[in-house]
From TrEMBL, chain A:
Keywords: Signal. This is Outer membrane protein beta-barrel domain-containing protein. The lineage of its organism: Bacteria, Pseudomonadati, Bacteroidota, Cytophagia, Cytophagales. It comes from the Bacteria. It comes from Rapidithrix thailandica. Residues 1-23 form the signal peptide.
From TrEMBL, chain B:
Pfam families: Metallophos. Gene3D superfamilies: 3.60.21.10. Residues 59-228 form the Calcineurin-like phosphoesterase domain. GO terms for molecular function: hydrolase activity. InterPro entries: Calcineurin-like_PHP, Metallo-depent_PP-like, STPP_CPPED1. This is Metallophosphoesterase. Signal peptide: none annotated. It comes from Rapidithrix thailandica. The lineage of its organism: Bacteria, Pseudomonadati, Bacteroidota, Cytophagia, Cytophagales.
Length: 208, 270
């Protein structure tokens, strides 16, 4: 239950932070649109839970199809005090956002659906051991790699800023699962508790 | 309007969280609840404080490799709970498939529904990722032994490959110590996951393992899992019988009955 509370505190903090401290940015003088180099990110996120640890940070770019595809590089950390083990996790996250709906007369934008896939891996010998070819021939364990796949869906709401270096601040949540969970659930639909497949995570996104 | 929208957004989020019910930091996390810890000791307390059945014999069910077989393992528990002649259950390892926290929790919940105590050894799959630490927290030491009605049960970690064939797994000196006080037990049973001679057993220790079992002259059985199927034989011709358990997915289990100087076994389908 304390996880739930942590999440609520975090969300509240993020909301306050987002709605106040960047409000002044609106007054900034106009700057012309600049063409960015391809590798310069256009957004950044702080994410709570969801496979990458307690907190993770990411930088990414919106690309293709009217910038409806969002790619992120994420790195996260789970401290032992919270998750029973110190785990550093890194990965990439891709999601497709089919709709962006502007709220009329308000600087708000809603993304009612995001569908995505996260591919991550944890660092440490206990996670990499399976890749040791001296001990395990290829395919000894079929999932040999320590790379895990985590599909998710989510929603996001953004406060947009015109004429500012900050384009928008958004909060979002995701419902995700892990490949190995799905694989375990599939042949055990009688007894594997369906709700245990899913986890809830969320964060704040800053677009610039 | 914005407030309504925000409220709606948060409401959907909270609903989703309740639906999801849990927050997962990492599939590799170790977050056991108190009732999921020290299960070996808890089960041993139950068993040793209230021995059941005839005082001269011990009757137990032998299973193994429950891994991802949640449906089949649940069926096993339901079937076994209808019997009244079984004193406890021995699980020959591979409680999980990927060594994940969630898997251990789910299987412990299923096995926890057994009316009788159950005891486990660690399997190679239980060592994957953070599995070893989860096993040690959830169950206890990887090597342990207990004496029930005068019979010595030695539970041994034999997952040599998972420890890089270090020459230390299985721990032969420890095993020898458990069997050496022959005046304090009637007969011994040694239970492990990987059987000697298997590719995953440290082959530098195979001979000393077999010799340790036979040299004290009181070991009835060496019981293994890992092969997912029943087998019985005396591979070293030294008076020690080697018995392999079914995985629960095979929908069969073995009932072993022991008495001083002998044993019998029956295969039961479910």
């Amino acid at each position: 239950m304390w996880r739930f509370q942590t999440f609520i505190y975090l969300l509240t903090f993020i909301f306050l932070f987002a709605s106040n401290s960047f409000a002044q940015e609106e007054e900034k003088e106009e700057t012309g649109p600049k063409k960015r180099k391809w590798f310069v990110p256009d957004h950044s996120k702080i994410h709570f839970a969801g496979g990458y640890g307690f907190l993770s940070v990411s930088a990414g770019k919106k690309i293709l199809r009217k910038k409806r595809i969002e790619l992120d590089i994420t790195i996260g950390y789970l401290p032992k005090a919270i998750g029973g083990d110190d785990i550093l996790t890194g990965g990439i996250k891709a999601q497709y956002i089919p709709w962006r709906i502007d709220w009329k007369n308000k600087p708000l934008q809603i993304e009612p659906l995001a569908v995505g896939l996260s591919i991550f891996q944890a660092w440490g010998t206990r996670f990499n051991r399976l890749n040791d070819r001296n001990l395990y021939s290829k395919g000894y364990y079929w999932w040999t790699s320590n790379r895990r796949f985590a599909p998710f869906i989510g929603q996001r709401i953004q406060r947009t800023y015109k004429n500012s270096s900050i384009k928008s601040i958004g909060v979002y949540y995701e419902i995700g699962t892990y490949d190995l969970y799905i694989y375990s659930w599939l042949p055990n639909q009688k007894t594997f508790p369906f709700h245990k497949l899913f986890n809830f995570s969320g964060g704040v996104q800053l677009s610039f | 309007m914005i407030q309504k929208l925000l409220k709606g957004f948060i409401a959907v989020g909270i609903a989703a969280m309740i639906f999801g019910q849990c927050i997962s930091y990492s599939p590799f996390e170790i977050t056991l609840e108190d009732h999921e810890k020290d299960l070996t000791q808890k089960n041993l307390n139950r068993l040793l404080d209230n021995p059941t059945g005839n005082s001269d014999t011990v009757t137990f069910a032998f299973i193994g490799d429950t891994q991802r077989f949640y449906d089949a393992s649940t069926d096993f528990v339901n079937v076994l709970n209808k019997r009244s002649d079984i004193e406890f259950v021995i699980h020959s390892g591979d409680i999980s498939d990927f060594g994940l926290d969630l898997e251990f929790s789910l299987m412990a919940e299923i096995l926890g529904k057994l009316k009788v105590p159950y005891l486990t050894v660690i399997g190679n799959h239980d060592i994957i990722y953070n599995g070893r630490r989860i096993y040690e927290q959830m169950f206890g030491p990887m090597d342990y032994s207990f004496t029930y009605k005068g019979f010595r049960f030695v539970m041994l970690n034999t997952n040599g490959r998972e420890f890089g064939f270090s020459g230390k797994v299985p721990d032969i000196p420890w095993l020898d110590e458990q069997l050496s006080d022959t005046s304090h037990y009637k007969n011994a049973l040694v239970i492990q996951h990987v059987p000697p001679g298997n590719d995953d057993f440290d082959n530098t220790l195979e001979t000393s393992y077999a010799q340790t079992l036979s040299k004290w002259g009181k070991t009835l059985l060496s019981m293994n899992g890992h092969n997912h199927d029943y087998s019985i034989g005396e591979p070293y011709n030294d008076g020690v019988t080697y018995l392999n358990s079914f995985s629960t997915s095979k929908k069969s289990y073995v009932v072993v009955k022991i008495w001083e100087g002998g044993f019998s076994h029956v295969v039961v389908d479910f």
